[in-house]
Amino acid sequence: MTTIDHLDTLPDGRSVEDARVEAARAYDLDRRHVFHSWSAQAEISPMGITASAGSYVWDGDGRRLLDFSSMLVNTNIGHQHPRVIAAIQRQAAKLCTVAPQYANDVRSEAARLIAERTPGDLDKIFFTNGGADANEHAVRMARLHTGRRKVLTRYRSYHGGTDTAINLTGDPRRWPNDHGDSGVVHFFGPFLYRSRFHAETEEQECARALDHLDEVIRMEGPSTIAAIVLETIPGTAGIMIPPPGYLRGVRELCDRYGIVYIADEVMAGFGRSGTWFSVDLVGVTPDLLTFAKGVNSGYVPLGGVAISAAIAATFDHRPYPGGLTYSGHPLATAAAVATITAMADEDVVGNASRIGAEVIGPGLAELADRHPSVGEVRGCGVFWALELVRDRTTREPLAPYGASSAAMNDVVAACRSGGLLPFANVNRIHVVPPCTVTAEEVREGLTVLDAALTVGDAHLP
Ligand code: PLP
């Protein structure tokens, strides 16, 4: 059985036929007027999305697909949650916009709810419009706080598409944007499956990766380094869970050398890993924590930086030189208040944790047993990756680093034709459904994935 559904109406009551007509017009106008992210404009054919509900989206043909991508890993509370929609509608009727210099009830309440959930003394919240600008501001705060300029980040990371954020990024999307004088230095993080440190165990990988980072810091000059920016669990770069002790070791290095530790939780935060923030998994408190996506599931653009007391104090009597017209926008923060409250009331984070441990993890492990194209399964919560390979012994990726491949394209096409919307990147399929996904939905999705991996297996030499 697959999840393909040919229903007569969409969740909002439109007929499938009306939705098809709308989608055809949208496609036509899109190709004429919309300039797309990360794409060769003449080579793309964007799939239409006309409606969504819970864990599902409807495409331009009115077909229902199970969303194993959460769009761009942001709809943590699921699609079209009624409490979030109602909150946005109420706020629109009350106050649609308010400039950041004024105090406002929903901004204050969102800040309180976030500060209550971030670890340690990260109690001040600076709101941005998304994740990239959150990282831009975190780096600016760290530079002003320390009086230093250099920033260290890991290869195999993504921190956003704006200028500083794309230069922080370690994955190949940086290459065409790297202007060489950003002050960013990259290092290797732990990744046992593709260890740069010739490690065979998690303990070795952890110790050697920390030793490497220590050496990079000493070679670059500790007194020149403002911050280390680290995705707690690197997301688009491959969902690599850090070995036990690594993040604690990074914290210790930052303390030893007076470096600001910035945890990028834009993708890993707000329930994705089965905890409110992924740093909670290891009990580490960074100096700055950036968030976006899950904070309000992307219903209205919002991101931000949670700031420690010490860094906030830097700006007690010295103006912070930065701001955004829409910082703490009322529609976005009203959506955040409703999202966080509903997530707490409905135990959405607990659901993510249980589904990951009881259904997704074991289900993917079974698929790995059956499909030789699966080299490794890793993840937690609703944050999982299947690493696809041409050869399990050599671990040669099914698609080379920084490129796509026919094999991967075929796997993705098989998922879609089976009624599943996956998140694919280079040689990986990420299983990243909403945190609200049910066990039954996960099982449906794994059935489609099973068939799609058979297509992947057929590409093996
Ligand atoms: N940081 C991480 C870890 C991300 O995954 C992303 C986006 O995927 C960003 C930053 C950038 O966020 P945005 O696209 O909202 O600017």
Automatic annotation (TrEMBL):
Keywords: Pyridoxal phosphate. GO terms for cellular component: cytosol. GO terms for molecular function: pyridoxal phosphate binding; transaminase activity. InterPro entries: Aminotrans_3, Aminotrans_3_PPA_site, PyrdxlP-dep_Trfase, PyrdxlP-dep_Trfase_major, PyrdxlP-dep_Trfase_small. Signal peptide: none annotated. NCBIfam families: PRK06062.1. Belongs to the class-III pyridoxal-phosphate-dependent aminotransferase family. This is Taurine---2-oxoglutarate transaminase. The lineage of its organism: Bacteria, Bacillati, Actinomycetota, Actinomycetes, Mycobacteriales.
